[in-house]
Amino acid sequence: MHDLPPDLPRLRTLETWLAYTLDRVRQQIAAAEQREAERQHGIAARPPPPEWQVEQGLNGSRPVYVHQGTCHMAGKRSRPVKRSDALRVLAEGVPPCTHCRPDIDLGILD
């Protein structure tokens, strides 16, 4: 059983279609490789997370929590701070996050 046409004109047409299809597949592969390279570059170029974060209240009011830099509970109103600032804010009475417990890593125990 033959699955290809026997005559030359149809074989040439099939060859042209396959060459066109192969070119499209190669273009899609190149585009996918480019996207993956960009994704890998983005991962490599991503800045490290901050060590500490202070979560501000609404409208930038008084801080409400101190978090470790990688805490998943830190809200969108969090900003990175230095260790000294995190210590100062905790000393001012701002509570530490109950999930990441930055007070333990900062050496502040009740």
Topology, pairings included?
Layout lengths: L7 H38 L6 E5 L6 E6 L9 E4 L1 H9 L10 H4 L5
Antiparallel strand pairs: 1-2, 1-3
How would you classify the quaternary structure?
A: single chain
By helix and strand content, what is the structural category? alpha+beta
Helix count, per DSSP? 3
The poorly predicted ranges are none
Instruction: Give the overall shape, derived from the CA principal axes.
Output: rod-shaped
| Widest beta sheet: strand line-up | 2-1-3
Q: How far apart are the first and last residues' alpha carbons, in Å?
A: 84 Å
How can the largest sheet be summarized? 3 strands, antiparallel
Write a structural description.
It is a single chain. The chain has helices spanning 8-45, 83-91, 102-105; strands at 52-56, 63-68, 78-81. A hairpin with a 6-residue loop joins strand 1 and strand 2 (63-68). It has 110 residues and is of the alpha+beta class. The protein has a 3-stranded antiparallel β-sheet with strand order 2-1-3. The mean pLDDT is 91. It is built from 3 helices and 3 strands; from the N terminus they run H-E-E-E-H-H. It folds into 2 domains: 1-46; 52-105, no CATH class.
